[in-house]
Each structure stands twice: as C-alpha cells, then as structure tokens.
Please model this.
Amino acid sequence: MQTMIDSVIQDEILTFIIFTFSYLTYFFSYNSKAVTLLAKKMGDQQSRKEYAIHIPRILGFLLLGIVPLILIGLFYTMKPIDFGLSFPKGEYAFIISVCSIGLFFFASIFRSGKKIDTTYYPQVRVDKWDKSKHLRNVISWSLYLFGYELMIRGVLFFSCYYAYGLTAAIIINSTIYSLIHIFKGKQEAFGAFPLGIVFCLIAYYTQSMMLPFILHVILAVSNDFKAIKLNTYQRTTLSQKR
Model:
C-alpha cells in the first residue's frame, strides 16, 4: 500500500515539473527570436502577424499535450486513460455533455460582445479576416487547447486527485488556472477560478478532459468572433466619422 502511495506522489511531483517547464517554454515563445524568424518565412507582413500566434499555439500543443503523453508512457505508473484521455463516460456523462455544451454554446451566442477585452482578443491581429484565416484560427486554437486541457484538466488534475483527493485537486487546479490568466487582466484572472472549478467537476464526473476541451474551444473561438466583429464595427464607425 505504501509503495502505491509513494508511486502516485512521485507521479504528482513529476507532473508539476513537466507542467511548469512546458508552460513557461510555451508562454515565452511568444515574441521569441525563433518564432519571429519562423513567422517571417510565412509570407508578407500580414501572414507574419498571423503565424506569430499560430506557431506558439502549435508549440503549446506539443509541449502541453504530446510531451506529457510521451513522459507518461516512459515514467508514470498509470496510463493516459487514467488522466482523462478518453471520451466522457460514467452514469451522468451524457446529460453533463448535452447540458454543458448547450449552455456554453447559447451563452457564447447571446453574450454581449462589449464585454470582450479587445486589447487581447483576437490574438491574431490582421486587417481583414476571410474564411481561411478564420479556419486557421479555429484549428490553432483547437490544437493548443487540446494540449492545454490534457495537461491542466487531465494530467495535472487527476494526478492531484489521486494524490490528495478531490477537494484539494480542485483547489490546486483552479488556483493555477487563475494565476496563469493574470496577464489577461483581473476580469479573466478572477473569473478563471470559478470556471476552473466547473471544468474540474466536469472532468471528474465524466472521467475525461474532453468536455472541458470542447467548452474551452467554444469560449475562445466565440471571444475571437465577437472581438473581430466589434473591432470591425469600431473601425467602420471611425472611418464614417472622418
């Protein structure tokens, strides 16, 4: 029994180490020389602005998603499925899936765009948006958020749950989630804590990080769409006044 407990705790320590260095590497990749040079090879100035965001997101997918999976296979005592890498399951999985996706979808539609922080959203700053740019934005968001949720509501949450129990795992996870939103401003930093609790509970009751991933994509993409629409309206209004 003690050997099993020691193994779980070792997994938890390794998880914190992996998360810390993976997230910091991803975060500081923005505006890094390597990303800037790579983005310059993608075309004109507009393309460079676009890919300067897409490249770090893809890097985040690799660092927060793929790397942990490899390390789990090499060093962990448990399998990826034990850390939420599976489809939602359990007695309440279906009803939780339908209700949560429906709620987030309709909330994203009816939420006022004026509440979106247009100084941050959209991250991709281009003058004109077309279907291809929207598609690339959705794909890069989805890749990044898959890795992000696999790490946060997958490996990190379930590692803490096995080591410390549900309540402690939720508090630890939501605190970290809130702290890594500080750079987005106080509204998102404070809002991330209760949202983190909701995501953790969904992951726990469905034994999966897939629903938090889907909900996070809905939230991020809808923020971008509304911010783009608001920015376009503001530019149009300004040009008409001139």
